[in-house]
Specification:
The complex is a heterodimer of chains A (113) and B (111). With 113 residues, chain A is mostly beta strands. Chain A has no helices and eleven strands. In chain A, the strands form two sheets. In chain A, strands 2, 4, 5, 6, 9, 10 and 11 form a seven-stranded mixed sheet that branches. A four-stranded antiparallel sheet of chain A has the order 1-3-8-7, with no helix packed on it. Chain B is built from no helices and eleven strands. In chain B, strands 2, 4, 5, 9, 10 and 11 form a six-stranded mixed sheet that branches. The chains are: A mainly beta (113), B mainly beta (111).
Amino acid sequence: EADIYQTPRYLVIGTGKKITLECSQTMGHDKMYWYQQDPGMELHLIHYSYGVNSTEKGDLSSESTVSRIRTEHFPLTLESARPSHTSQYLCASSELGARGEAFFGQGTRLTVV
Amino acid sequence: GQQLNQSPQSMFIQEGEDVSMNCTSSSIFNTWLWYKQDPGEGPVLLIALYKAGELTSNGRLTAQFGITRKDSFLNISASIPSDVGIYFCAGSSGSARQLTFGSGTQLTVLP
């Protein structure tokens, strides 16, 4: 069973607010990812990291930013939330040498009103 | 970028029936993965495939890595109500090994 945790599970917030979605893993994985997923739809990679102080943008353009100061922690921040940011955000991690296998957290369902 | 075509988009089956779904790509992948996602949860890895032609089972689930490396299928035998969910295929290739996901197959099992 994967040990990767996301908080909060659900968040309803007003337009213009700054928010940070937390993601932590206890598996010592070097690679971490953030995916955005609309209900029942495919997952789109928005950010990833190969390790501490490494961050890269994914295939889907996003106004969010990420940081990787500690191996186990990969928070995602939105400086000014908008209704278009309403979605599910999934965090995942994998070993550096893994052939693609990623383990996912339970996700954060974000609603911006 | 790379795209995966997953079909069918949705399936309604009777409990006890077998299920088959597949993914195809215009690009070659080095790894094929199958995930299941329950409502409100993150995807859970079911099966990982690493070699063309490889056939791997996990309980009632069987998946194959296509010979051309451009496709994969997942079979579920003797379906049960807890099989309900969305099944995603995913592929990775190249040194970056980022995953590309299919659009998912929504499975409903009727009693």
